[in-house]
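SAMPLE LOG
Freezer: B-3
Tube label: C17
Construct: single chain, 290 aa
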Amino acid sequence: MTSLGYEIVDVFTDRPFAGNPLAVVFGAEHLASDQLQAIAREFNLSETVFLLPPRDVTADYRVRIFTPLQELPFAGHPSIGAAVTAARRGLLTGDEVVQECGAGLLPVRLTEPGYAILAGGQPTLGDPVDPTGLLAATGLTAADHTGPAPRVAGCGLEFHYLAVRPAAVSRAVLDWSAAQRAGIEQISVFSWEPDGPVAQARVFCPGAGVGEDPATGSAALGLGVWAVAGGLLPANGQSRYVVRQGSELRRPSTLDCTVTALGGRARTATVGGHVVQIAAGQIAVPPFVG
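STRUCTURE (predicted):
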């Protein structure tokens, strides 16, 4: 085997050249991790996903997800993009499938052509933290901060969450040095609009070598966990919210989310979105470096 098939798709958008671009690579089950990393580095997108046969008999497929710098146990837009692409190519049967990844077994619903809903992993929530380091890492000031206290939260992949005033969202800029000093690997900076509700978000991932991500499903999932803990979403039952992201990168994205809570704590969360095919081709297999 000298090359692998791949597709480029845009995720969390219903139109091409928006959303978050993703490389979906097929037939790489015999390649070593360093070869997969080399391919992801070559694409140089925020993530590249490798669609693989499952190891768990209860799963329909398995994915491995790489940024240009490292492998991730889970990420939202690769999971959504892989499921829709696999379904379109006839590799999946049925509307309810199970994805195997580093974060475990995650249900995916293919509700219509080109659209999927992903259930996140087990919600996690940290204690409130001082916003000073987070503000410095995003080029903002104490006057920009608002809302409930920042926390680390997630559903398979954790982020810092920093609520700011609407006018501050577009002014946020990643300070790599300040982020490193504060130990911040991934941060979502957003304004929360109760009508909807809708979050206008920016997501910076210095720990993964990604300055800014145009659409981040894993961060959208964790935002629901944070919002329940902060009292912005109901303490019990299922709530819906929308995350809009990527406008500053000229890649507008829409992420449709739900979170189900009990006793003031998130129990499950989902994120859904559209996927649009952009390109297809072959990429050479990198040499093995043992």
